[in-house]
Known about the structure:
The protein is of the alpha+beta class. The protein has helices at residues 3-20, 157-160, 270-273, 287-290, 316-369, 371-392; strands at 24-30, 35-37, 50-54, 57-63, 66-69, 74-76, 88-90, 99-105, 108-118, 125-128, 133-141, 146-152, 163-168, 174-181, 190-196, 203-216, 221-223, 235-242, 245-253, 258-261, 266-267, 280-282, 292-300, 303-314. The model is unreliable at 3-19 and 373-393 (pLDDT under 50).
Amino acid sequence: xxxxxxxxxxxxxxxxxxxxxxxxxxxxxxxxxxxxxxxxxxxxxxxxxxxxxxxxxxxxxxxxxxxxxxxxxxxxxxxxxxxxxxxxxxxxxxxxxxxxxxxxxxxxxxxxxxxxxxxxxxxxxxxxxxxxxxxxxxxxxxxxxxxxxxxxxxxxxxxxxxxxxxxxxxxxxxxxxxxxxxxxxxxxxxxxxxxxxxxxxxxxxxxxxxxxxxxxxxxxxxxxxxxxxxxxxxxxxxxxxxxxxxxxxxxxxxxxxxxxxxxxxxxxxxxxxxxxxxxxxxxxxxxxxxxxxxxxxxxxxxxxxxxxxxxxxxxxxxxxxxxxxxxxxxxxxxxxxxxxxxxxxxxxxxxxxxxxxxxxxxxxxxxxxxxxxxxxxxxxxxxxxxxxxxxxx
Length: 393
């Protein structure tokens, strides 16, 4: 091998080492916001040529003759180029902005940038529908997140079997909805839904507790609701739902300790609210107007908790009718019990008479079968009585 060829191999090997040492930077860009992809170099007095590539496609070129933009969404910080700053500004990031970028200065690759795009989770919803399904959802998220269900007390994942659907809109963002069927013992469990971003940077939690209550019309009632211990600050909204119509009842903010109400006959105990007890006090409810579903919705940082209570108020008239009905039923049951007891006594008496009759018939039958034995016994007796008399004479 000639020295010239050997030297060429050495040069190529050195260049390969240099190429391998090019730094790689990872940047997470937020959807619809501007994002900076870093690149720097050592400035000199000569001309500077800068080129940026995305997926090996040229998107920007800066030469002494001027700046050439292939993509109108990218810019250089022109005032800082002379200071060695070749960073790229990507404006109004969208899902197409993700990928591998390369910064080249004066034909030398300075850095690789791996850009990921994320539309963070901004809200979470949890609710029920008339068919008995529990729905957990979020919208305008990128990339598609992960949805996890659990219960308190815990149930095996195989029992829950949720169905999760993800649909992509025009901007490439995802709407996510996960549906779970209520268990037979739904009132015994709290349903918990976690939505986790693909990169694990966020976890949003929603929970739902179902309850039922009943009370008499006109009697004051407390519908319980307590914030979780780890929820230090929250906003509260009490709502009332009946016949597919939802009405706001009361709002409260734990940070300002201020509340506002839409119902004059509904309020909170302020001292209890400071301790996280935000139970709703209803004064003199009317059965036909106030029977329905009361929802306590607690919202905090990346969390939402719902306690949904179905309340039924019975009127005083209904209460009297119900008592009257119960007395009638009690009388009927008592009558049936007495009738059953009499029937058993009669059956027992008849069975005893039948046994006595059968015994009498058996005795008569035995007498008919042994008539001679019955007659012999007196004759033998008379013989024994006359023998002493004969011997005495």
